[in-house]
Amino acid sequence: MFDAVWTNANLATMAGDGLGIIEDGAVASIGQDIAWVGPRKNLPGPATATYDCAGDWILPGLIDCHTHLVFAGDRAEEFERRLTGVTYEQIAREGGGILSTVRATRAATEETLAAAALPRLNALLAEGVTTIEIKSGYGLDLATETAMLRAARRLGEARTVTVRTSLLAAHAVPPGFTQADYIAHVIDTILPGAAPYADAVDAFCDRIGFTPAETDAVFDAARALGLPVKLHADQLCDLGGAALAARHGALSADHLEHANPAGLAAMAAAGTVAVLLPGAGYFIRETHHPDIAAMRESGVRMALASDINPGSCPARSLLLMLNLGCTLYRLTVAEALRGVTCHAAAALGLPDRGMLAPGLRCDLALFRVNRPAELCYWIGGNPCAGRVVGGMSA
Ligand code: NIG
Ligand code: FE
Fold it and tell me: Ligand 1, closest atom to CA 235?
């Protein structure tokens, strides 16, 4: 006897290396987990509750594996300046950019940070997101980095969603520190103090971020604390971030616009997931796209995420990233949809989700579309017809 069954649905299970389609299928749950998946006519037993999905498509609940959802204020004014020709990098070098969000975030409280992030979270959940990663990185001191991570975890209590937190203290150098002094402060003070609130440690390795040597030091400290690492890598230039992430066995390396093929091959060998963030590329008008051909060649798993943040990607939509991934990077529909399900789960080190298969969490996203390609095709609008989180309609 199952607890629940979702029937009269088409399934994109993500089993195998494509979409794993089962037409006229059913998904059955026991407790929080999927107990059975298959063609409806083979459903082996009854269920306490049966939901008729009226021909909707069921996908694994969507996973947004890279976000900066928690922050205060906005950067619409910088956006206006960029429209006159000033670049993202110039604004950062003038002490705006990330540091302007740091000033606003330090002035906020844990409560107001969570309250400001909630409508953004609601928008993502409405599109079928059931798991989200949220970074710190706008505090750059122990108290504010901790407040950001605690606000993120609070969001996971306020809504039916799994929240995974990443400590991104190595995001920028705050006022009053030299770069070297700040890295020492991150390693000696922020990492150990904020570790209880973090599921992973992230860093920004770039010419307006930290050097590879500084990133190595932060990652060594993170791993000594037992925390997995992930990296903002090769976004504005190639500093060898992809290979660096692979050397540390990182869960993921993200952005990768300028990553080189050898680094991507090293990631594939290390099992490090390549997280593509086409919304950030689009919004800062980066014309150098990630080397998707080299990624395919290497066999590295590709995920797609929103990167929602006030500076490089104020996008409250993961479905939009499916469209941008396909139009800007020429991903296939299967690559894009695996990028927000099974490969996004891998990018967060969560083997219990991301596919429709017995034994995995019963996190589902239902869509009123005729074929999965529509999820990548429409721009705007929201075909999500429901979410199931841990076997419960959410
Ligand atoms: O993922 N690259 C660094 N960090 C963010 C942007 C942060 C900001 O501009 O506020 C990103 O693009
Ligand atoms: Fe980011």
Answer: 2
Maximum Cα interatomic distance, the chain, rounded to a whole number of Å? 67
What phi, psi does 40 have (nearest 5°)?
-55, -35
Give the pLDDT band (50/70/90) at residue 124. very high
Q: How far is the CA of 309 from the centre of ligand 1 (A)?
A: 7
Which protein residues are within 6 Å of ligand 1, measured from CB? 97-98, 101, 204, 232, 235, 280, 307, 309-312
Gap from CA of 65 to ligand 2 centroid (Å): 10
List domains and CATH numbers for the chain.
2-60+354-393 (2.30.40.10), 62-347 (3.20.20.140)
Provide the CA 197 distance to its chain's centre, in angstroms. Answer: 18
Residue 392 pLDDT level (bands cut at 50, 70, 90): very high
Cα(386)–Cα(53) distance, rounded to whole angstroms?
Answer: 10
Alpha carbon 62 to its chain's center: 10
> Among the residues of 202-332, which ranges form H helices?
212-224, 241-247, 261-270, 278-283, 292-298, 319-329
Q: How far apart are CA 102 and CA 285, in angstroms?
A: 23
Tell me the average pLDDT across 249-266. 98
186 residue type, one letter: V
Q: Can you read off the two tokens belonging to residue 58?
A: 């069921």
DSSP state of 61: P
